Task: structure prediction
Amino acid sequence: MATNAASFRRQHRIGRAVIYGSLFFMAAFYLMPLWVMITTSVKHLDEIYAGSFIGLPQQITFDAWRTAWSEACNGTACRGLKPYFINSLLLTIPAVIMSTGIGAINGYVITKWRFPGSNVIFGLLLFGCFLPFQAVILPMAQTLGMLGLAGSLPGLVLVHTVYGIAFTTLFFRNYFVSIPDELVRAAKIDGAGFIRIFVSIMLPAALPIIVVSCIWQFTQIWNDYLFGASFTAGENAPITVALNNIVNVSMGRKEYNVDMAAAMIAALPTLFVYVVAGRYFVRGLTAGAVKG
Amino acid sequence: MSTLEIDRARKLYGDLEVLKEVSISIGTGDFLVLLGPSGCGKSTLLNMIAGLEEISGGEIRIAGKVVNDLSPKDRDIAMVFQSYALYPTMTVRQNIEFGMKIRGVSRAERDKAVKTAADLLQMTHLLDRKPSQLSGGQRQRVAMGRAIVRQPKLFLFDEPLSNLDAKLRVDMRTEIKRLHARLGTTIVYVTHDQIEAMTLATRVAVMKDGVVQHLDDPQSVYDRPANVYVAKFVGSPSMNIIPAKLEVKDGNAIAIIDIPGAATAQLAGIPVSSQAAAKYAGRGILVGIRPELFSVTGAASAQKLSVNIDVVEPTGPDTLALFQAGGVEVTARVPPRAVAARTPATLAVDTAKIVLFDAETEQRID
Result:
């Protein structure tokens, strides 16, 4: 008996070791590119060209980060990523707020104030989720031209807001549909109107899905390249476009360390958002599945 | 004064008529129960009273005032929902206060009203909790508190007990009854549970397919149901409806029931007018006998039925004895161990409480 128990424990330990070993291997494999990026970004350019690509830096320097932030050239000017980072913030924040807000109102109306044809409208909105970016570029460019917003940041904010509504409406509709209609009826009897019910009852209950919508929209808009490249030019470009320009413009030796640092600067905000709000993200995505 | 008059109210969804000219009128302090199976239109009617559904035809008057075109908040009503409908992100106190805040009631008055309601429902200790931290019974209490602070002309309850377990349901039922006795407010209460209707109501409206079948006080509905449907819906086990033949001897109605394996039974002393007796003489009718009208120790003069007991089902306080009569299965409620299965028995019948129904229209014969 004792030997049986011992062998069972040994088998258990071996099993655990295999599981953790393979998990560790997968994680390491997945993190490899990040590792290369981080190490490369803090190396001297000479060291990189000497052939050390994966190994630890001999001497850590943040020169490449400074260059990427404020000095790197993108073909027209050498002001680094900083102005474009600010552009992206000015673009992303209003677009996220507006698309989430409109999506919330849409979801509220579609689930709680049904009107003839509301299902059709929701179906058409869903269509927007499957529409590829490329398909809307030309009509969107014409629209922006007519509105006098071509090539400007407000124009790009509008594009992202409109394009995001399909997704945010879907999020909020699916969330609000699980909130019982009796709540709205009770509030009506309490004397609350359309706006009061939305602000006092639906929105506070929708916190998890608001977070999901914001993360989703932030990631989409911050990381977007196609719309940014299509509808803005020069000074108004978002960070993704600027990053591409910096990486593609090379005078003399290609500055891999600066490229890596710039790429990481461009990726940091989305990383930050995930770390801060990721907890809510998972909770919000699964909230619809479990009742109560 | 808080009367409710429903005057030929109709509800149409497209061409589908879910309520057909419903007329109900109750006085101040009445407890009206709308009783019926799901789909009978009782909840629709309640929502029309509340203003949550439009009225397709007819009139609804609360305290004499036509409310057809008033929004829910202007009808001076409060409603308790089946799922309680507590605002999930607000505390109990905020839930109760919400309506008063919207109406612009001052803070001091709000606090006072909340305290009064909380004391009345014994939930002062729950005021700062969220609905998710409450049990089903506590949520129900909060929902009632939210309705009480409104001090409405009319309380509306939409199946408020059906989400509770059996024990709690009985407790809350008593609590609602006590609340009604104390506040004296007019109540309209929707349920499919006939026990709730019997125990709570001062007036019961039994509904089926959008039509009120019977509107009366609960005991009258139980004793003299308007038709076979009401007879079967109210009471458990339900009233026995036995096909029989009516004959008239010396001006007295006698119901003749076939008993398999025995002589036909003749039941005299049935309360029915001589005109009706004459009209139905010699015709087939339906005899309605409540299970408790049977007994094993009737007086010598009592009307008797000799039957073969098929099955006995002891329930504790009494036993249900099942036998065949008139081609249907009949249930008798008798004392424990009074009869045995698969043996003959003689049962006395309290014929003074028998109800007769027309075999075709299934309406009561008076």
About this structure: The radius of gyration of chain A is 25 Å. Chain A has two domains: 2-70, 82-287.
